[in-house]
């Protein structure tokens, strides 16, 4: 009687993923979703830039999933850091920030995709696998807007705030347009109120606005038009 081989089939290789988000519950939920997949696994977590850079060196992930709003730091700057020091690591942004404003910016910074936290679990998993396969993941509507905006740049006309402002300035401008007070903006961006005033002055200069009242009106008007 022939004996059955006791050699076990080698386990399928799982892509290593680093989670960078300042909300423990968000990391826990993402880890639960990802670790249920046979081809994916979470190898580390971080809540801020310093922790993320340390985890990158320690765990060497293939993909980093990054939120734009981090504890005492900025996700866009982290993306640029990772691109500089670990150029082969893929990055996917999963954030609450509006996709139409920040998708193009994160792609320019070095990420390969953008997903909002409101999207379904299957969409996040699709985004992860698409980025791991070497492609870019963006919502179809956002992709169309980016293409239209690139085409419109060849037509003379006034630049929009999204084109004129730096990343942090645009975050500030959007929050002003949503009616947030200075203290609330400072809390959300984790910066001092004096820093908020500095950013508001820079934005006024770039948009050629004379007063804080004009800045607020312009921000509200622009936010409502989008």
- Fraction of residues in helices? 40-55%
What best-fitting shape do the alpha-carbon axes yield? globular
Based on DSSP secondary structure assignment, what is the total number of beta strands?
Answer: 7
- The low-confidence parts are none
Q: Can you tell me the CATH architecture of the largest domain?
A: 3-Layer(aba) Sandwich
**What does the radius of gyration come to?**
21 Å
Q: Enumerate the strands of the largest sheet in spatial order, edge to edge or round the barrel.
A: 2-1-3-6-7
DSSP helix count?
11
Return the structural class.
alpha/beta
The string of secondary-structure elements, in order, is: EHEHEEEHEHEHHHHHHH
CATH topology of the largest domain: Rossmann fold
Average pLDDT across residues? Answer: 85
Strand content: 5-15%
Could you give the distance between the termini?
75 Å
**CATH superfamily descriptor of the largest domain:** Response regulator
Q: What can be said about the biggest beta sheet? A: 5 strands, parallel
Counting structural domains, the number is 2
Name of the CATH first level of the largest domain: Alpha Beta
């Amino acid at each position: 009687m022939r004996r059955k081989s006791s050699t076990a089939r080698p386990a399928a290789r799982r892509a290593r993923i680093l989670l960078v988000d300042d909300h423990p519950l968000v990391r826990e939920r993402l880890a639960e979703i990802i670790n249920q997949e046979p081809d994916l696994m979470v190898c580390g977590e971080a809540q801020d830039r310093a922790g993320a850079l340390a985890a990158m060196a320690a765990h060497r992930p293939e993909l980093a999933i990054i939120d734009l709003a981090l504890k005492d730091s900025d996700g866009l700057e982290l993306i640029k850091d990772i691109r500089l020091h670990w150029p082969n690591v893929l990055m996917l942004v999963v954030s609450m920030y509006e996709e139409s404003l920040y998708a193009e910016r994160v792609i320019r910074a070095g990420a390969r995709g953008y997903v909002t936290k409101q999207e379904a679990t299957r969409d996040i998993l699709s985004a992860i696998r698409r980025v791991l396969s070497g492609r870019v993941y963006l919502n179809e509507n956002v992709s169309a807007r980016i293409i239209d905006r690139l085409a419109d740049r060849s037509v003379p006309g006034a630049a929009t705030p999204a084109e004129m402002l730096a990343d942090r300035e645009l975050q500030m401008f959007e929050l002003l347009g949503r009616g947030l007070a200075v203290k609330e903006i400072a809390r959300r961006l984790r910066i001092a109120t004096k820093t908020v005033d500095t950013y508001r002055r820079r934005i006024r200069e770039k948009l050629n606005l004379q007063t804080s009242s004009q800045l607020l009106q312009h921000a509200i008007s622009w936010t409502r038009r989008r």
